[in-house]
């Protein structure tokens, strides 16, 4: 048996995560199985187990990748040389999340079960990407809101990050949900991901 290179291993893992991402655009977490993911990759389903032991591990890798993508956008905000006010800062962060619908969709899931059914080494890699997002967010606030103390910035971070878990369910409402809310007499006002995020940040900042 020929030992695979690090590049080959990374490529195979990416193919599996890409297949999961493709399915997740149409189906929910419960509907996606390792069998269905196996149909989307150019190798046998048993091969998947060489890289991921559970469906949750694949989703966790997708989650990690989404945080890494958001981290690149946060880094651009941080490294900008321009001086910006709170409204523009809220605008930039809100725009960065409006581009990360997949991240917000994953956040709205039961992350406890996903993490519980993943190996520690994969969970650690995910936590690094997640932790980097929090770090970049705090660094952005420190740079653009110099009047805020370190405890204040920490408080804002620990309000905003849990808040992110609820953005997707409020912004991405299905017609079935709309009909149910109308029948229940709920006067639901639709807002986009950008609007929900921007309005929250303006109040926090």
CATH class call of the largest domain: Mainly Alpha
Roughly what is the average pLDDT, rounded to an integer? 94
User: Judging from the principal axes of the Cα atoms, what is the shape?
Assistant: globular
CATH-assigned homologous superfamily of the largest domain? Tetracycline Repressor, domain 2
| SSE class | mainly alpha
The CA-CA distance between the termini, in Å, is: 57 Å
Instruction: Tell me how many strands there are.
Output: 0
User: Which quaternary structure do these chains form?
Assistant: single chain
The Rg value, from CA coordinates, equals 19 Å
Here the CATH topology of the largest domain equals Tetracycline Repressor, domain 2
Strand proportion, as a percent range, falls in under 5%
CATH hierarchy: architecture of the largest domain: Orthogonal Bundle
- Show unreliable segments: none
| Structural domain tally | 2
